[in-house]
Amino acid sequence: MTVLRIFAAAALCALACSSAARPPERAAPAGPRVVVETRAGARHAVTVELARTDAQRARGLMFRTELAPDAGMLFLFDETADHAFWMKNTLIPLDMLFIGDDGRIVGIVARAAPGDLTPRSAGGPSRYVLEVNGGWAEAHGVSPGDRVHFEGVDRF
């Protein structure tokens, strides 16, 4: 019986040592994110889909029936301009955060109504637009002047 106990203890020791020698498993890399930092110092991350091409930007979040709470779409434009959006074929209310070249939020369209064909913009130049669920900006205390940081987003 003693030999059996010694053998079992040695086997357990070998198993523990081999487990410790393996490098830790890495989580899958996170997708692209936009981190919004408020002037109060709060940081809110949004996992984003990217809209880089004209076709992707034209489709946007149309026909979606839901959007995860901290998910959105980041529209990347080649130029800084007064970009305008409408809600044609969009089924959920959205907040649109217009972002300047310097990473500051220059304007917010809050709770844009589904299906509304009225063009909505910040009323001034922006380079990027982040669309999130309607009411997200207010719920997170986000306002014009706050800063955003891109993670995993190649802007060019």
Short précis:
The chain is α+β, with helices and mostly antiparallel strands. The protein has three helices and seven strands, in the order αββαββββαβ.
Q: Count all strands and give the number.
A: 7
Strand residues, percent: 25-35%
The helix/strand class is alpha+beta
Helix content: 10-25%
How many distinct helices?
Answer: 3
Strand order of the largest sheet: 5-4-6-3-2-1-7
* Overall residue-averaged pLDDT value: 87
Radius of gyration: 23 Å
Order of helices and strands: HEEHEEEEHE
Low-confidence stretches: 1-28
> What is the 3D shape?
globular
Spatial separation of the terminal alpha carbons: 69 Å
Q: Outline the biggest β-sheet.
A: 7 strands, mixed
Describe the structure.
Mean pLDDT is 87; it is low at 1-28. The protein is globular. The chain contains 3 helices and 7 strands; from the N terminus they run H-E-E-H-E-E-E-E-H-E. It starts with a helix and ends in a 5-residue tail after the last strand. With 156 residues, the chain is α+β, with helices and mostly antiparallel strands. It is 19% helix and 33% strand. Strands 5-4-6-3-2-1-7 form a 7-stranded mixed sheet. Strand 1 and strand 2 form a beta hairpin.
